[in-house]
Specification:
InterPro entries: PfkB_dom, Ribokinase-like. The chain is built from 10 helices and 13 strands. It is an alpha/beta fold. α5 packs across α6 and α7 (232-246) packs antiparallel against α8.
Length: 299
């Protein structure tokens, strides 16, 4: 029996500087209140999906180094299956969150998931980057998470395989870079000409989506003071995969996913912000969201 979702987006060691008052200018030194090391990148999505009750595998090569040895057990303790070979070095990101924004510096050796390793897990859905569509096996739902690197690499064009994509998720700044559009709504419509579901995140203001060519606005949620927005988009995708797996309607899934992303910003790191299913459902119900279907009913 296959897994619910495979995450093939590269996983990183995130080194997060917590409590910065501002970014240093050249020649300056700033101090953080804390320093934490957690799984990042695709590992955030995988942890979120697992905490929401999905059978989840991460097929993103971790390095045979101290960084890989550190985050590998962290990921497995969340119930996420690690699959595929390891590589020489683990991608690493230094994360500097400040209010509703963050700056990042990344080292990425560029090793990616292999199609055979993904197919071996017989996934219902696969979450990939825009340059990884070739690893999605036939019959699996393809969800694409577009980061800064892919937005710049594919600016002005989408790969030919984009027609296979079931849903594409991108933040506002990257959407404007990818499409050259003048607004998030225009960007969603442009990508939506090729992809049935497109979600452009607006941060605390929610999201705008193109659903089969129709523009839909998704309100944001007031969850209090934002500590770290890192990984909010990754967790939106995780919650979307959860809602889709339960058979929830598109617009309800968008609202639940927007809440999941918002809740993650209350604590440092994306992995730390992934809310567990029972707490998430309680929070959504309290805010008037419709009760999600049970997995048995969806099947």
């Amino acid at each position: 029996m296959g897994v619910d979702v495979v995450v093939a987006v590269p996983a990183f060691l995130d080194i997060t500087f917590v409590g910065l008052e501002g970014l240093p200018a050249l020649g300056e030194e700033r101090f953080a209140g804390d320093l934490v090391r957690t799984p990042g990148g695709g590992a955030i999505t995988a942890i979120g999906a697992a905490r929401l009750g999905l059978a989840t595998a991460l097929v993103a090569p971790l390095g045979q180094d101290e960084a890989g040895d550190l985050i590998g057990p962290m990921i497995e303790r969340e119930g996420v299956q690690l699959a595929g070979p390891r590589c020489p070095r683990t991608p690493v990101t230094a994360v500097m969150p400040i209010g509703n924004e963050r700056a990042m510096v990344t080292y990425d050796p560029g090793v990616r998931a292999r199609a055979a390793d993904v197919a071996e897990l017989s996934p219902r859905a696969v979450i990939v980057g825009l340059s990884q569509l070739d690893v999605v096996p036939a019959g699996a739902h393809a969800y694409v998470s577009v980061g800064d690197d892919d937005a710049r690499a594919f600016a002005g064009r989408l790969p030919g395989a984009a027609g296979r994509v079931r849903g594409l998720f991108i933040e506002q700044r990257e959407a404007l870079v990818l499409t050259g559009a003048g607004s998030p709504e225009e960007a969603a419509a442009m990508i939506g000409a090729r992809v049935p579901l497109v979600v452009v995140s607006l941060g605390a203001d929610g999201a705008v989506a193109s659903v089969d060519g129709r523009i839909v606005s998704v309100d944001g949620f007031d969850v209090g003071h934002s500590i770290d927005t890192t990984g909010a988009g990754d967790l939106f995708v995780a919650a979307w995969a959860w809602g889709d797996a339960t058979g929830m309607g598109v617009e309800d899934t968008l609202r639940w996913a927007a809440l999941y992303a918002a809740l993650s910003t209350r604590v440092p790191t994306g992995a730390g912000g992934a809310t567990k299913l029972a707490d998430f459902v309680d929070e959504g119900t309290r805010r008037g969201l419709p009760a999600p279907p049970t997995r048995s009913a969806a099947r």
